[in-house]
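Quarterly update from the structural biology core.
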Amino acid sequence: MLHIPQSIIDEMTAHAMSLSPVECCGIMGGTTSGDDAHVTHIYPIKNEDHSIVSYFMDPKELLWVHKNMRSNKLDLLVIYHSHTHTQAYPSATDVRLAFYPDAHYMIVSLEVKDQPDIKAFRIVKGNINQDEFSVTTPSAS
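Predicted structure, tokenized:
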């Protein structure tokens, strides 16, 4: 199961809303333990396409993210982007460009602007499977 802190969900949603109608994109890193993956870091990345229907992560920022995750011993857990005018479901382009079979692909739909819809998927060899995730909140001490 994928576990994501509410603060990171909020940051991803704010990123999507701040760039709308252009798609946002980014990566989440964290740790894995057995079947559980825990997101601890979010890395918003510039969309070089500046498009309302596609994204291309800035290569320099992407390289920095990979180096940062490696130095912090983090796994690449989530590749996220927004759909500003359509549902939270992978497009044909999303499927064609899904090169990381171990990653969760998360989409923030802003089709209904004041009600973002967030869904996660696994995309392997063109097959799309919706993926469950939990949103966690800090425990009180």
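The chain is about 25% helix and 40% strand.
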